[in-house]
Input
Amino acid sequence: MGGRGVGSAGGGGIAGGSGVGLDIRSQTDVWSARHNPDNADYVDAINSGARAVQEDFPDLMDSVEHVNTATLGGADASSVLGFYSRSEKTVALNQRYSDVDVMNTTYDQSVASGFHPSRGNKTGTEAVAIHEMGHALTDHLAQKTGARDLDELSKTVVDRAYAATGGRGARATKAWAGKISGYAKTNYAETVAEAVADFYCNGEKAHANSKAIVAELKKLA
Output
């Protein structure tokens, strides 16, 4: 299962992009969750993050069937901030971090450690939602272009962006991804999702490598 989770130095990480292996105890649709006034800021931030990506990819939500808040168990209860499930076409954030201020603190710790890119003027909740929407977007474009799956398309996008920025030699791709964030070095899918988060949180201040990845995604839309 993929998702953003707690990483080095106590910061927030994001689990992978497949939706397999997390200890998910329950999930609630965000609009149902918003009926609880305590969840209003949290749910609004999730939707704001999703909307930031959707504005550039209007048909994205055709491939996202659920946007949820999830209760996780075991080690995942505190270590995962959000996830995307390919099989269920679901973007979800961890209910444990439903206090936006707590999410901001957790996310900022991960930024300070180099694990995730800056959230710019977004909340940590928005940043995590954008990252997970980055996985959903890659999956959506994989289906649209006939790629085998999210992972195959992620590699194609990263390779093209790497070449477009003057990259040479496959062995240097990981170091190139690391300029986006530490977590971006995990695999190609996380490179793309972290680039999406960087781009939609930081705009023109995003790293050039993130901009190049988003540019390649837009070519496939």
